[in-house]
Structure formats: C-alpha cells, structure tokens
Amino acid sequence: MRFRVILLISLVLAACGGSIRAGGESVQDTKLYVVNQSGASISVIDQHRLAVDTTIDLTRLGFSVNAKPHHVVAERDGSAWYVTLIGDGKVLKFDRANRLIAQVAMETPGLLSIDPVHDTLFVGRSMTAPNPPRSLAVIARSTFTLVSEEEIQIPRPHALVTTRDGRWTHAASLAENRIASLDAVTGRVTFSTLPGAFRSMVQFTVSPDGRWMVIGGELSNTVLFFDLSQPPPFAPAREIAVRGKPWDPVFSPDGARVYFSLFGDNAVAEIDVASGTELRRFALGFAQPYDMIMRADGRYLFVVNQNTGATPKAGESAHDHMPGMEGMPASASKNGWLSVIDVATGALVKTLMLGAGPTGAGAAGAR
Fold first, then answer.
1. Fewer beta carbons within 10 angstroms: which end of the chain, N or C?
2. Confidence of residue 211 (pLDDT cuts 50, 70, 90)
3. CA dihedral 70, 55, 357, 137 (to 10 degrees)
4. What does pTM read for this prediction?
5. CA pair distance 46, 63, nearest whole angstrom
C-alpha cells in the first residue's frame, strides 16, 4: 500500500508542475561520480575536462573507515545524486554542490535504480552479508524517506533496473536463474525462471528506446537479451557467448551497440544489438573493469577498474572474492583507476587515478 501511495504523490507533483523529472543535460555541466569501496571515499570527475575535480572523504562527514560506498546514481539534470554505504548501512543524498543533505538507514544497501517517471529510488542488497534480505527498499527521492520494503523473494538479489516508462523494476539473483519483476501499478511481483546453465546475473541496463533489457551472466559467460515489449515472465529473446565474465552493460546513445565490461578478461566487449555479434574488444588499460558510463554524446566510455589483484578461478564468482566482502579483508584492495576510451577508435585516451577498490559509477542521465 505505501509503495502505491508514493506513485500517487508523484502524479500530484507532476500535475502541479513540481515533477522531479528534468530535461537534457550538456557534457559541460555534468559530473561523473565513482565510489571507492575500500577507501571510504568518492571521486568526482569533470566529464568535459577529463580530470578529477575533488575527492570526498566520507570519514570527514562522520562515516566510518569501513563505510564501503558501493553504488551511485544521479538525477538526470544533475541536481542530486545518491550513494549506498554497505558497511555503515546508509543511503546518502548529495546535492549538485556535493553537500550531504539527507540519509536513510537500511540493512546492507547495494545497487540503486532511479524511477524516471515517479518520485522513487529503489535500493537493492549488497553481498557483504552471506544472506542479505530478499527485498528492495523504496525511497521517496523528494523527501528522502523510506516508504516501504518490497519483498521479492529471490536469494542474493543484485542486478537492478527500472524500465523507462516507470512501470516495472526488475531484480535478478546471483544465486539462481530467477528474475523478480515489481509492478509499479499493482505492487505485485512476477517471477521469471530461466532454463539452462547457472548464470550468476550481475547487472541490467535498458536500451534508449526501452525495447531491450540486457544482462551479463558472469559464470555462464553469456549475454542475455530480453524483449520488454511484452510483460514478464520473461524468456531470453537471445543469449550469446561472450567470454571473460561479462559484468556491467551500457548502451550507445543510439541503442545500436551495447558494451560489457569483462571482469575476468581485463577487456570491454562491443556488441551489435541487431545481429548479436561481438564487433570489437578493447583490451588496453584495464584491470578488473567493473562499472561503466557512456558520456551523453557517445564520444567517451568511462570504465572503472577495480584492480584488486584477486583473480577468481573458472566457475567462481568474483563477488565472493571482493575485498571487504564476507571473509575478505578490505586491506587486500589496491588503488584503481578510470579508463577513458574513445569509442570511435577504441583508443585509451586518458587514465585517471581513483581510490582503493572502486566499484560503482554514476552520472546525470546515465542508465
């Protein structure tokens, strides 16, 4: 019930001209945010100058050295951005000037997803806990209050995305071949059980036109395409082999290509959406590529390199070997960096040093 109330509030805001949705953004006035999970810090990067603007030390804001910032997303107009702290059990809200303006407490927050239509921020669960809650937190972005926790009943929920029409939020399990889809209208959850080999699905993204949802299977070394023109339950419309532990996906602005960081191969794969074939593989300047952001104009691909030095064996999930995870000391992490790739040529343009164990990246307008 409380989840549906937040949707009504969103509609009222929009009717009064107070919708939090915003228009487009320019490269010059947007920042890129990268969280350094083992370093309790956040790197703020100027996407135009290709330079680190500042580094936010979370301990100076009263958080612990074990805060473990994990993921970050930003409003489309850059007016606010959000960070999960899996160690301190917090979700933070910052304004455009990097001022901390609100926070919400919850157990082991993980990935984040902004509903592009409603006043909603969805929060998944991190893998720090051996058995994280099987639910998604629902936060009202305007007031930054916890509205509800929606039960989705899949073990180790990780991948998280909201469709471009705001109708569905999809979460996938790292522990089994299941996707839970939360309906924004009814509040009901539909489950999709995928046949075949175990995949360990890492992260979703949705194409710019809203038609396709893609995800990487870390252990199956496959990339799965789902057709969003039909409601769940889903079956893969296409599944293609992509070696190297496909991790985080991002689409080109025109939706013709999708890129996957390959955590196990220290590379990035470029895939043609129409044919499902791998076109190119970028392999220069990476060390455990993790999250990725495509600049709004499509010129540069920003790739976060975790650089932990730990290499999972075949058949093992890298999630179980991350510094700071259960049984893994955070001190095992090294400083990582951001690789700036020229998409047209595939060349490494610049390397920007980050903090220890960087993971998630976010920017205005990024999905």
1. N
2. very high
3. 0
4. 0.89
5. 25
